[in-house]
Amino acid sequence: MSSAHEPVRLIRDVVGVLIPQGTKVELPEGAEAEITQALGGSFTVLVQGHLFRIGGQDADSLGKPVVRGPELPPDAGDSDIEEAVWAQLHTCYDPEIPVDVVELGLIYECRVEPAADDQRRAVIRMTLTAPGCGMGDILVADVKDKVLLVPGISEADVELVFDPPWSREKMSEAAQLQVGFM
Predict the structure, then answer these.
(1) Domains in the chain, ordered, with CATH?
(2) Nearest to residue 64, comparing CAs of 43, 48, 91?
């Protein structure tokens, strides 16, 4: 976890996601940036007065290691895979809030079920802290991408729902403490 502001220069062109609008913007090689949040392998960077999210698969553009998925033994069972899926969900962060989506109470359901060819499908129902959040599609894609890194998971069905509506009571006590609600 990093909360210190770290200046960097982009090593290559990279697509960043404008926060909170969710618009994709190409950031040019050589641009000066400041990492304002580095959590779960993703980065929030400040470039020319605007915040952008850069995913872990593009961490090399910031001179950081690219995010890899968890390793599981070849004989991993359903419970091992489900545990790895939950661990991956804990690496998904709202780029504006330094708390993962599980602790924020955004994951309403997560189950692992059989899929074709001895593989498994992760079925996830999640919500957002606010229905109009421009980062919704980005968070859903982050959840899906990170869950698909789990060995044995060939499909990830991530559904965004708003019933029941999210409220801060869904947050873990640790998350409430971290954001100053307690």
Answers:
(1) 6-62 (2.30.30.40), 78-178 (3.30.300.130)
(2) 43
